[in-house]
Amino acid sequence: MWKQRINICSVIWIISDIERVQGEKIQAKLLEESIKAFRAGTCTDIAMVITKSDKMNIKEYRRERKNKNYSVGNEHDAILERNQDVKNKKAVYLKKKLTEKLPPDSEVINKPKLIYTVSAREFWNPEHLSKEETEIPELREYLRTIYLKEKQKLVKDYMAEIWSMHRLAKNFGSMPQHEDQVFQKSGVKELILKDIDSLEKPLEKCFDDIQKPLRESVEDARKNYWNTVNKLLTRDEYRGFHRTLKAVCLKDGVYASRIFARIDFNESLAKPMYDKIDGIFEHIFR
Q1: For residues 246, 248, 252 and 253, what is the CA-based torsion angle, rounded to 10 degrees?
Q2: If I label 140, which of 85, 171, 258, 260 is the partner at 20 to 30 A Cα–Cα?
């Protein structure tokens, strides 16, 4: 369900519990799909929100923490230190993935903050953290900024549409003319033909940039297709898997099973091609 909806989202948050944030595989999949949605042009912002950041076993944390140069005095200090460490690690991971897939001038890469560690319980009933330290106020301000940005975009789009309609009404309503006369006098045809001619060389360059990586990636996909298929078909537990495979065939190679991991033969087989040309397509079309 989320994979169908993610492509129409203007802002995507990857949300995870503090205790599961380090090893959850779904995060990597969500981030991958979020980057695809961002490249498609609908999504304009990506962030990670880590919840329940107040959960802490102070004795266990003191025993397992890597920084032994100084001790942690109380639970407040331990929570803040652990949260900052998690933010630093996840920010490096997130920025690395975004940098690999998106142009260096993308706004989301250059954001001052990508990770938020929040605690609703501490915000409403402070025990160890102040309201500012729960990062709820900061997240609220972030939401307000996104809301205003989206509203400004809608207003600009509406105003552009109104202005176009106004110009059209003014030009066609000023005096009665035949449509062919208006078209001829406006010089639209000549302008379009001129612009089409000027596009020839840039388009040739785009095709040249795509062709070599595309050929190489097709060869890689052909060489590795058996390993890819074998990996999709190999399971530790095969009970009921024949029904899953039947569903995969009926759904054109894609099936989201409730028991097994999501299977997508099409995407897996084409992955070498995506890896090679995603960046080029992003540069050309975004």
Answers
A1: -140
A2: 85
pLDDT in tens, 58-92: 888 887 777 666 777 788 888 998 999 999 999 99
> Tell me: the pLDDT tens digits for 99-138?
888 877 888 888 889 999 999 999 999 999 999 999 999 9
Q: pLDDT (tens digit, 9 = 90+) per residue, 151-207?
A: 998 899 899 888 888 777 776 655 555 555 555 555 667 777 777 777 888 888 888
Position 253 scores a pLDDT of 82
